[in-house]
Amino acid sequence: MPGIIVGTDGSAHSARALEWAVSEGALRQAPVSVLTVNSVPANPFTGSPTIVANDSAQQQMLLEAAQELTGKVTSQLTGPPPPSVTVRAMTGYPAKELIEASRDADLVVVGSRGGGGFARLLLGSVSSQVTQHAHCPVVVVPGEK
Questions:
Q1: Which pLDDT score is estimated for 1?
Q2: 86 with 132, same domain?
Q3: Total tally of structural domains belonging to the chain
Q4: Residue 96: CB partners within 8 Å, gap ≥ 6?
Q5: 131 part of a folded domain
């Protein structure tokens, strides 16, 4: 997936990251891939994702929400849009999926905090892991002050 990868989880921080990534994609005329991940727990014995029956429904809901937000963000651009904007949803571990996607990307964009609920953290666990392990440059978009 060459171009810009942006992770979104429905939080305000990830929405700002999406806005930044779409604007940057438009400016650089680079394709933008929006990635949303249905986060699941790890199997305590194997470390693999534990997938249950309703995960596909949850993944579909995340996909639809990400598509709606992406459509809203791209419609608010004042200049030409990026050459393409795609939205993908998967089930697994958000940091791992973003790091894997970074192998072929030119840039990964994440929000400074997501929906994890640890408000005292300045940098969320996913953004922290992505900045440390990505295979390309990473931009962490801060929240509004």
A1: 60
A2: no
A3: 2
A4: none
A5: yes
Residue 144 bridge partners (DSSP): none
- pLDDT value of position 121: 47
C-alpha distances out from residue 61 to 32, 53, 69, 90, 93, Å: 21, 14, 12, 11, 17
136 and 98 in a common domain: yes
- Check residue 114 and give its pLDDT: 54
> What is the pLDDT at residue 53?
67
pLDDT at 17: 95
pLDDT below 50 — which residues of the chain? 115-122
| SS3 (DSSP) at 4 | strand
The DSSP 8-state label assigned to residue 43 in this structure reads P
User: Are both 96 and 138 inside the same structural domain?
Assistant: yes
Q: Are residues 63 and 78 in the same domain?
A: yes
pTM metric for this prediction: 0.86
Q: Which residues of 40-57 are buried (b: 16+ CB within 10 A; e: fewer)?
A: beeeeeeeebeeeeeeee
pLDDT at 47: 74
Residues 78 and 110 in one domain: no
Q: Give the domain extent around 102.
A: 92-115+126-145
